[in-house]
Amino acid sequence: MNKRKKTKKAIDAPWSIDYSDVLSKLKVNSETGLTTGEVKKRKKKYGLNKLREAKPKSAWEILFNQIKNIIIYLLIVATVLSFLFSEVVEGFAILIVILINTAIGFYMEFKAVRTMESLRKLGKFNVNVRRNSRTYSVPADQIVPGDIVIIESGDVISADVRLIEASKMQANESILTGESTPVGKTSEKIDEDAPLAERSNMLFKGTAVTRGSGEAVVTATGMDTELGTISSLVEDIQEEEAPLQKKLDVMGQKLVWVTLVVATMICVLGVLSGRDLFLIVETAIALAVATVPEGLPIVATIALARGMWRMAKKNALVNKLSSVETLGSAAIIITDKTGTLTENQMTVKKIIIDDGDIDVTGTGLNLTGEFIKNNREIKPQQNKSLHELLQVGVLCSNAALDIKKGKKTDSGIGDPMEVALLVSAEKSGIKTEELRKELPEAKEEAFDADTKMMATYHRKNSKYYIAVKGAPEAVLDVSTKIGKGKKVSDLDDKKKQEWLDKNKELAGQGYRVLAVASKTTNSTDENPYSELKFIGLICLEDPIRENVREAIEVCHKAGIRVIMATGDQKVTAEKIAQQLNLLKSDNKYIAMDASSLTEESLSKEKNRQEIIKRSIYARITPKNKMDLIDLFQQDGSVVAMLGDGVNDAPALKKADIGIAMGMRGTQVAKEASDMVLQDDNFSTVVEAIKQGRIIFNNIRKFVLFLLSCNLSEILVLGVASMIDAPLPILPLQILFLNLVTDVFPALALGVGEGDQNIMNQKPRDPNEPVINRANWHFIIIFSILISISVLGSLAIALIWLGKNNVSAVTISFLTLAFAQLWHVFNMRDSGSNLWVNEITKNKWVWGALLLCIGLLCLAVYMPVLSDVLNTVNPGKDGWIVIIAMSLFPVLIGQIIHKIKFSTGKHESLS
Asked: Which residues in the chain are classed under CATH 2.70.150.10?
């Protein structure tokens, strides 16, 4: 970790004073820059220009996490007791259980953590700075406050800087502000109270210059930057334990008390009945082993790892096993708009000219599209106004396309809005580079924040063609003519107002609207913004990502609320929400501006309830996102947060599960997340939630199976101890069952495909325990049935068949083993088909049964193993008793399923 002293910022609010005053306060001359000696002094004072990096999780820490489980603690106690009472074989057997579980969990989490840490290796790059009156290229982490930085288009800004010069400069600040379009930059001072998104004379660490060039002075580095402030917010957030882990721990604590109570009762009863003290201790250990489901940590780990593997195949990289299940209980998804719901690529969608509206198909950088007018495709070359409008878009631009063979492009260089204009021109058949050669640029009037326009002069024969684009109100104000095909007519105030009304209507629909105009002149000295011929309006939007609408519909069916939290304006957010069907037609709670999320409003219950009913939050800040997450969490919801920008990182850390975009996401966002979407596809989140739900259902099924099996072992031992009968099952036999014949069927339940219609159900109550009251009824009923079959087989072997104790115990042991195997078929949901259901269709169940039957045969007929387990050949009559009595619980179980369904008490076990 890069540790550095807490320092005071080099300068406060540099945007609010003239750049000359900033230079004076930082004691630097912009022409010469800092001296080498001064750089060393400031580096010592302010430290390296780095963010504090998260301490890598050590292998020992990952290993320790695997044994932080109450069931593992109980197994360790059982191991110690076994060794203390000279039960060495039993002690080593339990120890092996602990080692197997720890090894599996360690491997899966170690692999996931190291994969995530590899994402944190930030690429190192250099920065051009002026020092000692010369320009040097130095590593980004070596710059200090006061350094003069030379900036070009395409540069990634490595520190917070105050602009000294800015020529045609625009920067993409979406990772900080959430704004989807680049913002213009100037060197003029602005108001001290200006929010981050409006500090037009500043460039911030982590953002990128999309256009123009300039010089700036570094005002903050490392953790003192805006990016550093957000990173510190992430550090201050404490991670919450996963819901499933909490529930398993609670259940484990209850099992500890059950173990202590049962063992104490047996010891007291044994002493009172005059039994041998060693036998009493042996029985108590056996009961402790029987109480603890040794296979639970192993099966839970493997089931979660299986879900993690499935998600990885679907392009969702999970960095912690417990996060797999957490997704399944998500009731709220809070997502950013730009780059998450939308493509973060501006696209021309509509063109308005004097003779009608024209729709443009295609999105992003796809160079294939159609121009539709009155529901019919038109040829742009045949419409003079449309063709000229598209040409102006090409000429009045500094962007470029990287066009491959055919009609494809991988990237655009420059302002995304200008790139979109070039793409629309290519769609029409205009070869943008050929047009620029045909009409070479002679002069440019850069976009100006005051005029809100840009103009370029192009040589055309002996004259100059002026192409203009800008804000509709500005362009209309300086236009006197309007073109309609080959005709040109006067543009009076009435017509201008009609166009202004049209612009307002389009802006209300969420479009970014540009106006274009032109004129021909004899000299480049002529004012470009006068006597213009108005051509029309261009409507752009950031298109919705593919499949997002369908994924949101699935979420709604699944009872999951999708919340959009964006830095964009309210009107833009509402338009996107309508396209995505985020809002119902009768929903009076439309968008809320983040300015309403004040501490006062959040402190009042009435306001809090109104806030959480919203589905859109506009002009959101990092703190607002964390407040929202906290609000929903206090309301009892499990919250998933999607994001890709630096501004999303605190919320990703705060959420129950943070999900970062792998392709578009920043490194800071990935570091703060629990899961990374490698394909940036919102629908992948829905698939991950589905898998999370299936995992929880599978976990509940195998917990039911294990606990009912273990409780049956407790009952048969307890009853036998009270009636002074031989123990129906010995301690090592219990351990053999709990490790082998219990684990494999439970594992098969844990890795099943699950109910494929599970997304038609509402999210479960996050406070619901793994085992609810109805589940406990199930466990008790079936453990009693299994116990009856085992005690019955022991009685038959001793009384009717006249077997000795060893043979009789072998029969009762095998009866219990096979009864538990068949018990897996009782795990089907009530009302499901007897022969075709989620259990019978699970190939892993059949494989587990075959494997366990083979192992049980080895336990009887393999000399060494049979000696350790103290078993003998039960004989033909013994096998008949074993098969008949072991089938008793599953046969009665199917009758219970039938009765339950016929009385209308249909209930899913999971």
From this structure: 14-54+125-235
